[in-house]
Amino acid sequence: MPKPSEVGPTDALVRIDRAALCGTDLHAYDQSMPVDPGTIMGHEFIGTIVEVGSAVQQFEPGDKVTGACIVSCGTCALCRRGKSGNCPGMRVYGLGVAFGDLPGVHAEYAVTPFADVTLRKINNEKKAEDVLFVGDILTTGYEAVRRSYQPGDAVAIVGAGPVGLCATMSAVALGAGTVAVIDRVPERLAEAERFGAIAINAAETDPQDAVFDLTGWRGADVVVDAVGHPSALETAIRVASAGASINIPGVYIQESLELPIGELWFKGISVKGGGCNLLRYMDEVMALVEAGRLNPSSMISHRMGLSEAEKAYEMFAKREAMKIVFDPTK
């Protein structure tokens, strides 16, 4: 793709040094979230600033940065209240016209709007591959626990994919009393255990029994649906305690679902979802990464050149890779 030639007053032109493949990219790849042919995909990146607009004050050429995958204005009423994921002008890199028609980062260069708001400097380049995930899955997983968490809570995470594992390491870093991860893939459950969680294989045991055993038959205080599938949400409701909060970073694209509304009502469960409020939590997550308390780069299973993107997307869609990182110079 050609190097972008137009940089607005509040924009920055970033040379992409590394970019990752995200599960959300698969919705465009399989056209369950349709995008037009020719759309540049991708929204997780680290890079080097090449040029800044005349109104940018926090950054200059040469700065190493990462950025929020959801571009929000930072000044509207919702952004000021910490709800940047609901910004009326919200745009997402690489997801086509429906999400603001913002070209993605699976390219050599990308223009980042509202640079002072959405970008963050990388202060420790040794942590660059960990910082790569701050702009999306790491902060998404962190928020899914953090926004409802109280010290000592029992946390249950349904789904041990990349977002689920980010929620897992976040719950451990926050000091949760119990962290249980539910999945059916032994390799992913082993990764969750490595982060300090208790693994529950739903193919071998009933998740509700297992979580209630771990919590003295109370259930989980915070539950994360990191899958975005009706069966995962049903499991989340079953393992939740009375008064629990279910947080849904998993992407639902269905218009409607059947829910056990009686159980939700009887237990008094709160359900929260939507795009991550990245601007509210990115700085907390950056601090934990730089302190070595969050290490998401261990999830990287493949490092590939951007010229191998077709193969990489195919592998990722077939669940043959946990996390793929692209080098745009290759």
UniProtKB/TrEMBL annotation:
The keyword Oxidoreductase applies. Its cofactor is Zn(2+). Keywords: Metal-binding, Oxidoreductase, Zinc. Residues 162-288 form the Alcohol dehydrogenase-like C-terminal domain. Pfam families: ADH_N, ADH_zinc_N. Residues 8-117 form the Alcohol dehydrogenase-like N-terminal domain. Belongs to the zinc-containing alcohol dehydrogenase family. This is Alcohol dehydrogenase catalytic domain-containing protein. It comes from Streptomyces humicola.
